Amino acid sequence: MELRHVAYAVAVVDAGGVSAAAEAVHVSQPSLSRQLRQLEADLGVTLFERGSGPLRPTRACLALLPALRELLALAGRVEEQTAVHARGGLDRVVVAAPNVTLTDVVSPFVATLGADDPVLDVRPEDSRLPADMLAAGADLAIGTRPPAAPARWRPLATLPVWAYVRPGDPWAGRVQVPLSELVERRLVLLPRPFTSREALEAALTAAGAPAPAGVLEAASGPIAQALAAAGRGVAVVSDDARHDLVPLAVRLPAGAGDAGRLTIRLVVAWDSRAPAQAGLSALADRLAAFVTSRYGG
Amino acid sequence: MELRHVAYAVAVVDAGGVSAAAEAVHVSQPSLSRQLRQLEADLGVTLFERGSGPLRPTRACLALLPALRELLALAGRVEEQTAVHARGGLDRVVVAAPNVTLTDVVSPFVATLGADDPVLDVRPEDSRLPADMLAAGADLAIGTRPPAAPARWRPLATLPVWAYVRPGDPWAGRVQVPLSELVERRLVLLPRPFTSREALEAALTAAGAPAPAGVLEAASGPIAQALAAAGRGVAVVSDDARHDLVPLAVRLPAGAGDAGRLTIRLVVAWDSRAPAQAGLSALADRLAAFVTSRYGG
DNA sequence: CTCGCGCCATGCCCGAGAGGCATGACGTGC
DNA sequence: GCACGTCATGCCTCTCGGGCATGGCGCGAG
């Protein structure tokens, strides 16, 4: 019996099914399904009844459940306690992230931390690759592309890319604009390595849409918005709204996933071999939970 | 953090060092050493001070120790509790073993089991290979050769092979006899597949000793002893003494290991994929502990 | 009635990790 | 100074956890 298996079993009970639990514990549904059976074989007890629909805990499972929860809680307390004894581990955590994310995501999260929590040493980063940030000394890195092993990562959020128009614009009354219409306008975009730009171009390629009628490059999100506010074009960025700009979702052709809107995926990553890895992953989970509650997943 | 790692760390503290702990938890010393470092990295805490001699727990480790022990105790209780709910798992456990082992080892162990323990359904087996016994439906198998993966096994005991002479024999006053002298006598041996026979012949080959002067084959250990009691030769078997026979250790040439005596190794094996695997390994551990306390390892 | 959708299980493959063996570095005691 | 006991490290194997793709299966909508 391993703690991981116990956590999986409890997650299945709480989530009411394997599929839902798999999402909660960040593994695929087949993997979780197999781990469950392994735990059952290991203990020699049938924990779940299979059959129609979501599987349901057996009587034995429910009887064990309190002890299993206690086991997890105790393990959690041990890991917390280690933070106290950690030498140079979680007193300071260096968080690296692109600028947009820092202002819109990390800063609000830092504001929610208590006195017991580690001090987050936030550092803006040019690279979009979490792997590079980790190599540069960051403990946690936020970016758009999952790093390769042995780094670990977790999905953080799926943020929409907005097309910002000023209040007087003909589109100002709409809530979304199709990609095909968007390219007919002059666009204010960020330079290439920025994710909103890359996501837009990838979507254009995938949809077979023509190149935008005109492109104006801005050095940062706020500047792009300022240009849009000045009527120089439609700013396509993922920043939150400024200057009273009106955000429009960018509608993609059907079947493109992400609810048909242009989005960018954020991930949070850390080094699996770093000291206090348990603490880092816990912090990453809290950050993900915070973002989910704030942006609604 | 996984329960296995916790168990390892506690074992190291209790045993006072990696090497001793490795034996206690049945893994090799290098493996245990690495797991420890992994646990430290995972928690972000230095648990042991390395340096001269056996490593010693740090202050942080000692602070965590009670919680770790509690964690293991709780996990143990959960596994015990599962035995109660196990369906057809550990109510009956089929134990297969060679005849000698059954009478001399398993039976006394069965006598020590309480009402809460599973019923051991003991079955004598001709094969010396635990793998065959498991394939034949046994839950636990006792034999002389460790099975291949995915079966799991544990060393059970190292039993001496005795040279039995009757009280009136010229050797009756001795406690041991060298292999070279033994072969000059007429010997009462078991047939080939029996382990005492195979061990003897392997030792003869290894020592370059001549073949025994004369061999009388007996169908079983007790019969061999009966023949020895009748003065028909020296019985070389691993059974406990009967018929007032005098046991002599068989001395091997130096460097042959096993404290220079002819011995056979016993192992207990089970199927890692069997239901109630946790209960089986616990039972195997208890059996090993019993044998150790009875035969002094 | 049938089709589609949401469940979970299974087959396949890959990579990480745990394990063993052999060996090396380091201290201690004879 | 040498033998021995400690733990660490390199190398290899093999299990197992994980993901993707796919297959049954029941239920509900059309």
From TrEMBL, chains A, B:
<dbReference type="InterPro" id="IPR005119">
    <property type="entry name" value="LysR_subst-bd"/>
</dbReference>
<dbReference type="GO" id="GO:0003700">
    <property type="term" value="F:DNA-binding transcription factor activity"/>
</dbReference>
<dbReference type="Pfam" id="PF03466">
    <property type="entry name" value="LysR_substrate"/>
</dbReference>
<dbReference type="GO" id="GO:0032993">
    <property type="term" value="C:protein-DNA complex"/>
</dbReference>
<dbReference type="InterPro" id="IPR000847">
    <property type="entry name" value="LysR_HTH_N"/>
</dbReference>
<comment type="similarity">
    <text>Belongs to the LysR transcriptional regulatory family.</text>
</comment>
<feature type="domain" description="HTH lysR-type">
    <location>
        <begin position="1"/>
        <end position="58"/>
    </location>
</feature>
<dbReference type="InterPro" id="IPR036388">
    <property type="entry name" value="WH-like_DNA-bd_sf"/>
</dbReference>
<keyword id="KW-0804">Transcription</keyword>
<dbReference type="InterPro" id="IPR036390">
    <property type="entry name" value="WH_DNA-bd_sf"/>
</dbReference>
<keyword id="KW-0805">Transcription regulation</keyword>
<dbReference type="Pfam" id="PF00126">
    <property type="entry name" value="HTH_1"/>
</dbReference>
<dbReference type="GO" id="GO:0003677">
    <property type="term" value="F:DNA binding"/>
</dbReference>
<keyword id="KW-0238">DNA-binding</keyword>
<protein>
    <submittedName>
        <fullName>LysR family transcriptional regulator</fullName>
    </submittedName>
</protein>
